[in-house]
Write a structure and sequence with these properties.
With about 130 residues, the protein is an alpha/beta fold.
């Protein structure tokens, strides 16, 4: 496959309150807020990838079509930290074995182990034990 001239530059999250979401993700990821331009709040770029939050007048509706997987050496311990920052666990996904969380505006993300973990034929796991 030939190298593509295209690459992902940044992930942009729509937000009713971009300052609040940027503060949550900044603390969670250890990436400080580095800029504000118009409706955008930006976290520090890392590994070539930017993360920004864009003000929108529409609240989130329905399940995300794309979500982030955040790797941690101890996903179970991270649940408490996410909740202390204003996120919550989404119990409706517990049967899949993933630690599915939501940020303060309801955007879903998974906290997964840093190392490899097993998936069954249905895409379920049990890394939480």
């Amino acid at each position: 496959m030939a190298d593509s001239p295209m690459q992902i530059n940044a992930l942009i999250v729509d937000a009713e309150d971009p300052e609040r979401l940027a503060a949550f993700w900044s603390e969670l990821l250890g990436r400080p807020v580095v800029g504000r331009t118009g409706p955008y709040v930006w976290l520090r770029r890392e590994n070539g990838l930017g993360l920004g939050f864009q003000r929108t007048a529409s609240p989130k509706s329905g399940k995300n079509r794309m979500h982030l997987d955040i790797a941690s050496p101890d996903p179970a311990a991270e649940q408490q930290r996410v909740e202390a920052l204003g996120g919550r666990r989404l119990e409706e996904y517990a049967d899949g074995g993933f630690l599915v969380m939501a940020d303060p505006e309801g955007n879903e993300f998974c906290v997964i182990p840093v190392g490899p973990f097993e998936l069954d034929g249905e895409g379920r796991t049990n890394y939480l034990g």
